[in-house]
Give the backbone structure.
Amino acid sequence: MLSPDTLKKGLRYNVIEIGFAAVKDAFTTGAILTGFVLFLGANNFLIGLLTALPSVTCLATPLASIITERTGHRKSFSVWMLALSRYMWLPIMAIPLIFPNSNSGLRIWLFLGLFLIASLFASLFNPPWSSWLADLIPENIRGKHFAKRLFLYNAVIFIAVPLGGKYLDLWPKSDSTGFVTLFGLAVIFAIISTSLVRKMPDLPMDSNREKFSFFEIIRYALRDQNFRRLMLFSGTLSFGDGLAGMFFIVYMLRVLKMSYAQVGMLGSLMILIQMPLIFWWGWLSDRYGHKPILSICLKVVMFTPILWLFVPLQNFWPMLLFIHILAGIFWAGVSLAHPNLIMRLVPLKNRSAYFSTQMVFVSVCVMLGSLFSGTFMSLVNREINIPYAGISVSNFHFLFLMISCVRFYAGLRLGRVNEPASEPTDKVIKMIPVILQSNFTSGFNLLTHYVMLPIQDVKRIIGYQDNDDRNSPNSSPG
């Protein structure tokens, strides 16, 4: 067992490192990554393939579990895989510098190859990392802790994404300097984040863990009926994520002709909405269970893709603002409750086996969704002239409708998952208006602390207090 001071310090490192990792993610994902692959000459199919690549590499996650279960060295293995996955952005950054005048086919396939390797290292990192965190973070503060991580992550993303987009807009679309600079900064912040991960303590792995082969890992985890139901839910939701991929961003850049800064601004708006609500969803999850919170949020986010059908090509701002505000409110709950539900339902013994099996299945679902959407968008590339309310139906609209249908089915699958000691969803829904009145403003107070106060106050908020009052909704983390 770790001493209270060691645990407190380790959890603080775990929160702080996510802030530096957020800068890396802000500059290597989303609109910036989409813009880079479009700059390299990617078509719709290659965009779908790019979304599928991380899922393909996740098929190797059982290898990480085999290594860590047999050696017991999950911390060193995790740190090495994390570092290698992030440092692969150095050769990616060099592609437009080494091949400035090469044809787009060579550059895009070289990028996809390097991105595949980076994704492979990241996939090998995830199972031991999840097992490490599940053992390190006490269950009674898990929702609270991840709310802090997610809040800080979103706070940094909120600032970094629009700044990165605005910086890209300063350069001509045929100039790679903006992308190269941002990728270089991403690597610097990734190095800092990785060094903080190395400082985190680890607990000894379960000495009674069984040692499995590749297929034994999967067979062992699949004996658990409730875990199978959880996998089907996660897989269905992830298939919908794969369908979406980067196409919402592509739609804004190509169809609506928005700039990188405008796309980044909408992403930051959604994050700004999420930030004061993360602690609220986290407190509800710790008190009433992760499943009811996930169910409530899914009832809304399943309809947001349909709203994209009603975004006009000219005066699109009001509708886009409404969609991003709505998505920000309820995706905050999904992002927090989903991984916590997985951690709660995975048993202590041989956790890596469960995490690897779940990641493999989810990755296959994301891969299939990504490949389907990429193929669909390439084959159905003509606009169908059925105008309504000034909007003509295109392949994008059909894709958005399919995403909503998949999310609806995911909600049905969630209903079959059993979370012990969680409250019924209907009961939580009835209690939300009362809780909202007493707790919502505390989230905005936390937002003010994080963004406006000096650095020493931020450290005080991130740090853990000795007293953990979980009996009042006003005792949200921070």
About this structure: The chain has 20 helices and two strands.
